[in-house]
């Protein structure tokens, strides 16, 4: 069985840009090297915070494996833990089910959060006593159904007994509410929320319930609820509510969300913001391999940058001069010149052997791989000669090979064995050249 701690992402170690006193550190927050690129990214973060990025986007350019995606993730981390980050590659927009512009629009709206604040009158307390009343089902005399109940709630200030209807009883049963649980009952909608189990009440040696503090103050109170959704979440909710099919079968009718639905959501969100009920959290839309986009997608992004509700768009590419997809025109990075003029372009440099060594140390620690010094140096050599990405990918196979031999530490022997089993891109290309005549075309 795979442990949760072992399921790590490629950039799960990134915590930020590693800036201290406005200067990037050689190794910090999971980033190594790329000093100039990180300094530029830090200025981008300041521009975003001051609201001066409207109508512009960012483009990272550099060879493969030079940290372009890591820098995009780091920018999102610097903007705060609640900043939405939506990442996709240029090829993902070519979907058989959705139009290219629809894929991009959904990605953009997934990159914009809406923090909604609601004040509701609720009954909140610890369930001290609960009794249900049952009666025969009107259509099935052999079945009983809940028709009401009595629940006693308690806080540090008072105790109160409430009569509740069958709707609330159903919810209490569905949520498995029992004595000692802390719950909220919305006065207007009757919605029941189980917050967890109060600390110190019937402690178990083993239990899955979250422990919470005893509620304070009166049982009947006005309570503020804060929750964050994306614009795309609100789009889907609105489209489902307008779909007759969804009312019967519980599924959205639309694969593509109609423009009028989005217009209604935008109008509602603006009203919420003006009334102080919500605030927007602009996030990051990161598109890797941006050279895979075509002229239609680039035109869409150019218009999107001018929109009031637009995330920070970050593009990345490892291409030089190449043809703009959908045209016969060659251009830097395969992008239209009018779009390039509106981008803040940041270059990334190949890593030095010392920087590769530090990155591999970080990745090995993140993936729980113990490396002997000789094994680390062999990976550094492979990273310098072939690619950093290739060397990083050998960490997990090398660990498994070591475990099969009963070792707890990876040695140079396992690294060399893994490099023979899994060849690099350069070796693959050389292999194709050697056997070109025998390969299918």
From TrEMBL:
Q: Which Gene3D superfamilies match?
A: 1.10.8.60, P-loop containing nucleotide triphosphate hydrolases, RuvB-like helicase, domain II
Keywords for this protein: ATP-binding, Helicase, Hydrolase, Nucleotide-binding
Positions of the AAA+ ATPase domain: 54-363
Provide the top EC class.
Answer: hydrolase
Under the GO molecular function aspect, what terms does this record hold?
Answer: ATP binding; DNA helicase activity; hydrolase activity
Reading the lineage from the top rank, the first entry is Archaea
Instruction: Name it.
Output: DNA helicase
Classification of source organism: Archaea, Thermoproteota, Thermoprotei, Thermofilales, Thermofilaceae
């Amino acid at each position: 069985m795979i442990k949760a701690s072992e399921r790590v992402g490629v950039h799960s170690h990134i915590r930020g840009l590693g800036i201290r006193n406005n200067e990037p550190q050689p190794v910090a927050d999971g980033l190594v090297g790329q000093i100039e690129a990180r300094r530029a990214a830090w200025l981008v973060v300041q521009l975003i915070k001051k609201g001066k990025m409207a109508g512009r986007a960012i483009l990272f350019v550099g060879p493969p494996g030079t940290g372009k995606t890591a820098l995009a993730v780091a920018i999102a981390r610097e903007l705060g833990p609640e900043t939405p980050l939506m990442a996709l590659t240029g090829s993902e927009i070519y979907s058989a089910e959705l139009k290219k512009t629809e894929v991009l629009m959904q990605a953009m709206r997934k990159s914009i959060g809406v923090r909604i604040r609601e004040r509701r009158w609720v009954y909140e307390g610890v369930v001290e006593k609960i009794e249900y009343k049952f009666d025969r089902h009107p259509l099935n005399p052999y079945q009983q159904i809940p028709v009401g109940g009595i629940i006693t709630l308690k806080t540090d200030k008072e105790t109160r007994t409430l009569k509740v209807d069958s709707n609330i009883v159903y919810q209490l049963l569905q949520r498995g509410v029992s004595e000692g649980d802390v719950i909220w009952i919305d006065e207007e909608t009757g919605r029941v929320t189980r917050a967890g189990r109060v600390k110190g009440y019937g402690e178990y040696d083993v239990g899955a319930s979250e422990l919470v503090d005893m509620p304070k103050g009166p049982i009947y109170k006005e309570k503020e609820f804060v929750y964050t959704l994306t614009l795309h979440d609100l789009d889907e909710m609105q489209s489902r509510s307008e779909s007759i099919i969804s009312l019967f079968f519980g599924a959205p009718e639309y694969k593509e969300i109609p423009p009028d639905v989005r217009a209604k959501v935008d109008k509602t969100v603006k009203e919420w913001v003006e009334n102080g009920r919500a605030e927007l959290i602009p996030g990051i839309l990161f598109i890797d391999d941006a050279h895979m986009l075509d002229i239609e997608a680039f035109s869409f992004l150019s218009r999107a940058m001018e929109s009031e509700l637009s995330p920070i768009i970050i593009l990345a590419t490892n291409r030089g001069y190449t043809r703009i997809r959908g045209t016969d025109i060659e251009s830097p990075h395969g992008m239209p010149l009018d779009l390039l003029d509106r981008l803040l372009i940041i270059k990334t440099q190949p890593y030095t052997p010392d920087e590769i060594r530090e990155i591999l140390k970080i990745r090995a620690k993140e993936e729980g791989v113990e490396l002997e010094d000789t094994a680390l140096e062999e990976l550094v050599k492979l990273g310098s000669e072939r690619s950093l990405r290739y060397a990083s990918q050998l960490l997990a196979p090398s660990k498994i090979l070591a475990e099969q031999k009963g070792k707890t530490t990876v040695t140079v022997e396992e690294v060399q064995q893994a490099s023979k089993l899994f060849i690099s891109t350069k070796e693959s290309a050389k292999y194709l050249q050697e056997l070109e005549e025998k390969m299918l075309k």
